[in-house]
Amino acid sequence: MVGFLERVAGAIANAAAALGVPGAAWQRDPAGVWLGGQKLAACGIHVARGVSVHGFAFNVDTPTEAWRAIRPCGLDVPQISLVHARGAPLTVEAVARELGPRLARAV
């Protein structure tokens, strides 16, 4: 399962680099994609009664004021959005075009 998370996180980090934000990387504990000590994406797997639930949340353009209400994975950690790290606007569609094929290849 950790290998799956690493592949998904790698796809996210590679998409971020292709979109002008290099340096993001998978970190296992606490799990996620991190950029300079700030969480750029949450990645996780939960298994209960033989059923797995997995997913990720890529912070694309979260408004700064929203961070006060968001606790990724229940952690109180600094977070950053792709747009903030990039310093320029970006559409969700542009991120999807970049990330979609990478995720498909990763999984």
Describe this structure in words.
This protein has 107 residues and is an alpha+beta fold. 35% of the residues lie in helices and 26% in strands. It contains three helices and four strands. It has helices at 2-18, 82-86, 92-106, and strands at 25-28, 31-35, 38-48, 51-58. A four-stranded antiparallel β-sheet has the order 1-2-3-4, covered by helices on one side. A hairpin with a 2-residue loop joins strand 3 (38-48) and strand 4 (51-58). Helix 1 packs antiparallel against helix 3 (92-106). The longest helix has 17 residues, at 2-18. The protein is globular, with a radius of gyration of 13 Å. The termini are close together.
Briefly, what is this?
This protein is 35% helix and 26% strand. The chain is an alpha+beta fold.
| Poorly predicted tracts of residues | none
Q: N-to-C terminal Cα separation, in Å?
A: 11 Å
Widest β-sheet, arrangement of strands: 1-2-3-4
Order of helices and strands: HEEEEHH
Helix content: 25-40%
Strand content: 25-35%
Largest sheet: 4 strands, antiparallel
Note the total helix count: 3
Approximate shape: globular
Number of strands: 4
Structural class: alpha+beta
Mean pLDDT across residues = 90
Radius of gyration: 13 Å
What key attributes describe this structure?
107 residues; alpha+beta; four-stranded antiparallel sheet; 4 strands; 35% helix; 26% strand
Could you outline the blueprint of secondary structure elements for this entry?
Elements: H1 2-18, E1 25-28, E2 31-35, E3 38-48, E4 51-58, H2 82-86, H3 92-106
Antiparallel strand pairs: 1-2, 2-3, 3-4
